[in-house]
Model the fold of this input.
Amino acid sequence: MTTPFKAISSLGSRVRSGVSNLGAFMRLAGAILVRSGTAIRRARLVSQQVHFIGNHSLLIIAVSGLFVGFVLGLQGYYTLSRYGSEEALGMLVALSLTRELGPVVTALLFAGRAGTSLTAEIGLMKAGEQLAAMEVMAVDPIRRVLVPRFWGGVIAMPVLAAVFSMVGVIGGWVVGVLLIGIDPGAFWSQMQEGVDVINDVLNGFIKSVVFGIAVTLVALHAGWTARATPEGVSRATTRTVVVSSLLVLGLDFVMTALMFS
Amino acid sequence: MPLWMWQAAACNAESVSQRGQAIKGYAFSCSGRATHPCDQPRAKRRPRERRHARYNGGEFIDSKPMTTVPSSDTILQFADVALGYGDHTVLSGISLEARKGQVVALMGGSGSGKTTLLRAATAQILAQKGRVAAFGQDIAQMEGEALRQLRQRMGVLFQQGALFTDLNVFENVAFPLREHTRISESQIYERVLEKLDAVGLKAAAHLRISEISGGMARRVALARAIVLEPELILYDEPFAGLDPISLGITARLIRDLTDKLGCASVLITHDVNESFAIADQVYMVGQGKLIAQGSPTELSASQNPYVRQFLDGQPDGPIAFHYPVSPAFTTWLEQRKGRRP
Done:
């Protein structure tokens, strides 16, 4: 086969593989949603996952939020001071966090911390025949394993984003008010004045829920389809980080365009 | 609780009535077993009978399609079955059956396809040819809820144990009870500790799976496989990794369970001594087919070179130790040689 034909063949193969993977992903997502009644009937399984996913991610989210708040405080002050608007620092920090950085950075950290953990756990369960054992025991592994983890991730993500934003605001306050010396009354009143609950906080919340759904589904799918070998699980965890990070950034652009245009 | 006490407890009519009321869609609606086999007259039970041997005077038996009509006691039946993965056929012409109260051993060398048989029995793979039937129903025709109901009547001990690593020992054994029954927490507690005691691990109930040895993990998996007291129990290498004491107790436990519950037990094993001590019927697979079958006594007297080599562990014989050379290997070897400086 000549080189141009090889290239076309290779491209076709990649496209077909991509479409096939997307179809498999959507089918798994559909299967999880259809079986989601388990999340209500057996809420304890979901609460365990919220604890596992959320609690274990709390520290990294809080510390990251604090440093992002520090940086926002510094950068915001340098920029605003050019225009003599230092008092608006509180509003700038809060808007940046609730609209964008809170949901997006939390989702990226969530993908790296909880997403990889979910993928590795499911992949290792597959490698250890645990999923096959469940199936043979007449227990649906999607219902028993994937559904609680999915809803655990979807619930934990907005809570973590809220924690990130709150700690970030505190970080901005520490830099702006305590270190630089901006008036605390102006800091908080400008924030209160400039942040809208519906347009900013609710939209940020919606973003974080969508990111939670996307990252958790990608992580579960990667684990579910991982090859049952150490190398396969390793590749799947890498895929989780890469795919979910790109998906979060892409979805963020689309949602920002829809929400704030 | 010592083994003999557990055995007595297994025949306890109270636990039988609890089971009958509690297990949804299990045993009674499907099997028609209204009472525990232990409560039935002894004559109706079939412990340790040597039945249906198709062995022919110790001679080599070609695997042929089963021509006998399965009786109502038949729990698992393979009729002229071919099994494999994709286009590759691992075993063909397999005919065997396991009946109530019978321990059936499936033996053969490594890679001979024994685990493939177990996968076919549990509908993890479908037969390429022939019919696999469990409880009189063709497995290939079953899916969804019907397959789920069928699997609830089976217990499977996986080769690697397949214990859930996010649960501790107690919760692993309790898992089938929590998923398939509505019995109270106190009943689960009693039942699980009873089964763990039977495998000698009652005091390990609190341990995490990462804290127990490989042999202990297999015993926990055994307790989990029998906790629902299923009608068909499939054991994939139940004796692997066990010390001599655990091995003997496990073998006796399998035999006693089969007798007490009147279930069918299928052992996939390499262990000749222990399996011959408890089995009613032995099937040997190798070279992609059923090589021999019969009672342990009959196979022990066999002069079939395959059987003799396997039973005596002889290095020379029809079973090759070395993996056969294939064209793919030859090509690979040539390429490797070409790379050398």
